[in-house]
Design goal:
alpha+beta; three-stranded antiparallel beta sheet; three-stranded mixed beta sheet; 6 strands
Length: 160
């Protein structure tokens, strides 16, 4: 592991811990040359399918890209980073369990919307408005009506 401060390859691990979920190892290291400490994280490299974009391009599955979209949708909303991490983790696991070498980006987008619908309705609408690229107010209103109908079917009532 290269030291982020002096670029030396000479360092040692002084502490290791598993994450709460047990899927990641946190290691505290000290550089033998500059004596500065830094943290690294290890996780198992998993084989994820390629994402097929709308225009036919293929790119690797990118959990950071999903997190960025979620963070934008949840900006200034009462949603914790831990909740967002769990959503990304569930989507990543779902992608792996789905099988196959490729997955359409549209399926991932729909899965993100399902997760956001359960997590925060405002974030869901924000994400949907960008993801579905509403052309006019009628499309936007249609999405809101669908949201309200699903909400009423579940027995959730609006604040009065």
């Amino acid at each position: 592991m290269r030291c982020p401060y002096c670029s030396s390859l000479s360092n040692r691990v002084i502490d290791s811990r598993l994450s709460k979920e047990g899927d990641e190892t946190r290691r505290r290291r000290v550089c033998d040359d500059c004596n500065r400490r830094f943290t690294t994280y290890e996780r198992v490299a998993e084989v994820l399918p390629l994402v097929v974009k709308h225009d036919g391009r293929r790119e690797p599955f990118d959990r950071d890209k999903i997190m960025l979209g979620l963070r934008k949708a949840c900006e200034k909303r009462p949603v914790s980073m831990d909740s967002l991490e769990r959503v990304v983790e569930r989507i990543e696991i779902w992608t792996q369990e789905r099988g196959g070498r490729e997955i359409p980006s549209s399926e991932i987008g729909e899965r993100i919307m399902e997760e956001l619908h359960e997590l925060d309705e405002v974030a869901y609408v924000r994400f949907a408005s960008v993801y579905r690229q509403f052309k006019d107010i009628n499309q936007f209103m249609g999405e809101l009506k669908g949201l309200l109908e699903r909400r009423e079917r579940k027995g959730v009532h609006r604040d009065r």
